[in-house]
Design a protein that fits this description.
The chain has helices spanning 19-23, 38-56, 72-82, 94-102, 125-132, 136-148, and strands spanning 8-11, 16-18, 27-33, 61-67, 87-88, 110-114, 120-122, 151-155, 162-166. It has 171 residues and is of the alpha+beta class.
């Protein structure tokens, strides 16, 4: 995943993981949140249930938590209390502000699904998860497959209908 390069992420257990390995071939959602935020505390359990359901079905999905917590201890407590076993940008990393700036995050909670290059698939992830549950994963995965060149798309001139073909796109 190009937006993280060779940087490291952490699991709520404290295990450090190389971002590139952990996120390879997955649909990735960036979760901007904090334990002190009441709307975050309402949405995070919903997101954890969503995450667990996708994982139980062995779908290639990962969340990267981008914390707005005030201390490392606050972040750790929030992750252990409310989060699924997803990844996080380490507390105090300059990457937190870089991601907030890149994605224009001015309010939390915010769930943004991105391509491997960091392009936005949806900035409305919170709404989509809340309203559609795991069904929204299919849309996200399809958009990312197109971005990766794994799905060829064509518009038939006569009908104007959109069709997609799974497989390696040919140029």
């Amino acid at each position: 995943m190009n937006i993280f390069g060779d940087r490291q992420l952490v699991r709520r257990s404290g295990v450090v993981i190389h971002a590139e390995e952990a996120l390879q071939s997955k649909v990735v959602a960036l979760y901007f949140s904090a334990g002190w935020c009441p709307p975050c505390n309402q949405f995070t359990p919903v997101l954890a249930e969503f995450y667990n359901e996708l994982k139980e079905n062995e779908l290639p999905f990962e969340i990267v938590f981008v914390s707005s917590d005030k201390t490392a201890s606050d972040m750790e407590t929030y992750m252990k209390k409310c989060h699924g076993d997803w990844l996080a940008v380490p507390f105090g990393s300059e990457m937190i502000q870089e991601l907030k700036n890149r994605y224009h995050v001015t309010a939390i909670p915010k769930l943004i699904v991105v391509t491997d290059d960091g392009d936005v698939v949806t900035a409305m992830g919170r709404k989509e998860v809340t309203e559609n549950g795991p069904k929204c994963f299919t849309h996200w995965a399809h958009a990312i497959a197109i971005a990766r060149g794994e799905v060829a798309t064509t518009v038939t001139k006569a009908s104007g209908r959109f069709t997609a073909e799974i497989g390696r796109a040919h140029v």
